[in-house]
Known about the structure:
Blueprint: H1 11-25, H2 27-36, H3 44-53, H4 63-81, H5 87-102, E1 144-151, E2 157-163, E3 171-179, E4 185-194, E5 197-201, E6 211-217, E7 230-233
Antiparallel strand pairs: 1-2, 2-5, 3-4, 3-6, 6-7
Amino acid sequence: xxxxxxxxxxxxxxxxxxxxxxxxxxxxxxxxxxxxxxxxxxxxxxxxxxxxxxxxxxxxxxxxxxxxxxxxxxxxxxxxxxxxxxxxxxxxxxxxxxxxxxxxxxxxxxxxxxxxxxxxxxxxxxxxxxxxxxxxxxxxxxxxxxxxxxxxxxxxxxxxxxxxxxxxxxxxxxxxxxxxxxxxxxxxxxxxxxxxxxxxxxxxxxxxxxxxxxxxxxxxxxxxxxxxxxxxxx
Length: 234
């Protein structure tokens, strides 16, 4: 009979164990791609757009067109402050500002023929952002509240607006802004307020994931919030 002898060496397995540990040690570099898989969001251009938008002077533009810019700034600031904002949201917010700037209408572009040239506003745009409106959505004790907001499938928007302030003059501006699914401003309406009111507005049909947002400001010039913004999504 043929006898086959197999000899096992204790040294070989233990020595070969060392190379086998190398791949596990190399697992550390393999974690780098997974960490770098999270895309870096660049907000540089958005912040520059916000700074540029804030150099425009409300006195030179029609109320509605400047309100659209103010709303775009508000939205852009919210996106800029979000730590989890996507690059798409950042780009859309920047585009919203650029669109609002492009659509600004100067008061002098539709002058009253009877108005003398000397009466045309001569205020130059300020380069100091601190002198420009800085819309804010920070919580505070607001004199106005927006409640019972509903948006029907047919695009009918309704809301109750209550004034609880102590000032006799409750004059304010109601801003109703429409945003598409990407967060870009696509429409804006504004009207005067002076105390309690219930509103019903039509033609607020939205695409999927669109948003209608309601603000109350003291004026377009300062854009000081007088209520918490309220929004409804489709």
